[in-house]
Amino acid sequence: MVVFSPLATDPRLGDVVVRSATVEARTSFDAYGGNVRNHDLVVRAVTADGEPIVVCVEAKAGEPLGATVAEQARAGAKAMHANPNSNASARLAGLVTRLGSSE
């Protein structure tokens, strides 16, 4: 049993227990076709209450993390204009809803 103590800065995450850690993990994050996501590290853990937590790490050194949500929304609209069958906007909307982000 390993406790990931850096997460202890948030009281809800103080007693997180790491169940597994996978280097160079490949995951699919929605039902749309296309490429899988390559993560540098994926950590699966649980809180003291048994709630699951997944932390995906993208390590960067001297390179950008990518587009902001707003920039990606503009790119999705452009993709939809170029190809009405594009799922770019729907994929982004689904991720924003699931992750609770709008920035």
Report what the structure shows.
- With 103 residues, the chain is α+β, with helices and mostly antiparallel strands.
- The protein has two domains: 1-60, no CATH class; 66-103.
- 25% of the residues lie in helices and 28% in strands.
- It contains two helices and four strands.
- The chain has helices at residues 69-82, 88-99, and strands spanning 2-3, 17-27, 37-46, 52-57.
- The chain has a four-stranded antiparallel beta sheet with strand order 1-2-3-4, with no helix packed on it.
- A hairpin with a 5-residue loop joins β3 (37-46) and β4.
- The longest helix is centred in the C-terminal third of the chain and has 14 residues, at 69-82.
- It is elongated and about 50 Å long.
- The termini are far apart.
- The mean pLDDT is 82.
Kindly report how far apart the N and C termini lie: 36 Å
One letter per element, helices H and strands E, the order comes to EEEEHH
Specify the helix fraction band.
25-40%
Q: What is the C-alpha radius of gyration, as a whole number of Å?
A: 17 Å
Q: Give me the number of helical elements.
A: 2
Q: Which segments are poorly predicted (pLDDT under 50) over 5 or more consecutive residues?
A: none
The description of the largest β-sheet is: 4 strands, antiparallel
Strand order of the largest sheet: 1-2-3-4
Strand content: 25-35%
Shape type: elongated
**What is the total domain count?**
2
